[in-house]
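I am hoping you can look over what I have pasted underneath with an eye to the fold:
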Amino acid sequence: MMKKITYLCCICMLLLSIKANAQKRQISGVVSDQSGGVPGATVVEKGNPSNGTTTNQEGKFTLNVNSNVLVVRLIGYTSKEINIDGKTNITVSLQEDKTTLDDVVVVGYGTQKKKTLTGAVASIGGDEIRQSPSPSLQNTLAGRITGFASQQTSGQPGADGARFYIRG
């Protein structure tokens, strides 16, 4: 009985030492496409989705990992799995995925594809907003978008906090 306990203790100590030696290492790199660095791409350790980061404005990232595979994703691009065995600096080139670029409309309770949307959709361009003399975005949109109403309750200078209502 004593030999069995000794063997079990030795096995447990061996497993604990192996786990302690599995150290995280730092990986840095750049995610790019045909036009240069891609901001906002998600870089995640495969098998550990809680360990990840996003790329900065230049497409650069830094991540501490245990495994040898990273998964890089970005909407509108095909996902890529990168083997990082023995590497500390990588460059990832993403390819556009034109099959996933359907029109998507953001609605008050989620997103829907434009072809399945049954309600009215209104939009306004940035050029039209820039031409407005009003410093308040709510007042700028009032009367220009169907179903959008804005109410300015004060005439005091600088009090731009209008209330807005969206039909539906």
Summary: The CA atoms of residues 22 and 68 lie 12 Å apart.
